[in-house]
Amino acid sequence: MQLREALKTGLKTLVESGVPSPELAAELLLMHVLGRDRGYLYAYPEVEISEQITSRYLQSVDERATGKPTQYITGHQEFWGLDLEVTPDV
Q: What is the biggest distance separating any 2 CA atoms in the chain, rounded to whole angstroms?
């Protein structure tokens, strides 16, 4: 699956589930599983991603669609330029 397709698939799932800011959540989750930044997602939309990465991404999207916060899934939250570690205990 290409990055573009993965992002569209994740976005569709999140929109249908009523998640707030679905575009941002879809991007953050894909960035997390790829270990890349947002610029990479849009600079190389045709890049093929492995089945393993696709599976991890779609699993993360499904978790978010059930209401689990994106920050709990990724373990991170940016705040004023700081990258904070986040757990459900926070």
A: 38
- C-alpha 44, offset from chain centre: 16
Please report whether residue 31 resides in a domain: yes
The three-state secondary structure class of 66 is: coil
pTM of the model: 0.89
Which CATH number characterizes residue 31's domain? 1.10.8.10
The C-alpha angle 18, 32, 51, rounded to 5 degrees, equals 90
- Residue 17: which domain range? 3-85
For the segment 12-51, what is each residue's pLDDT rounded down to a tens digit? 999 999 999 999 999 999 999 999 999 999 999 999 999 9
Cβ pair 45, 4 in contact under 8 A: yes
Number of domains in the chain: 1
Domain assignment of residue 90, yes or no = no
Cα 52 to the chain's mean position, in Å? Answer: 15
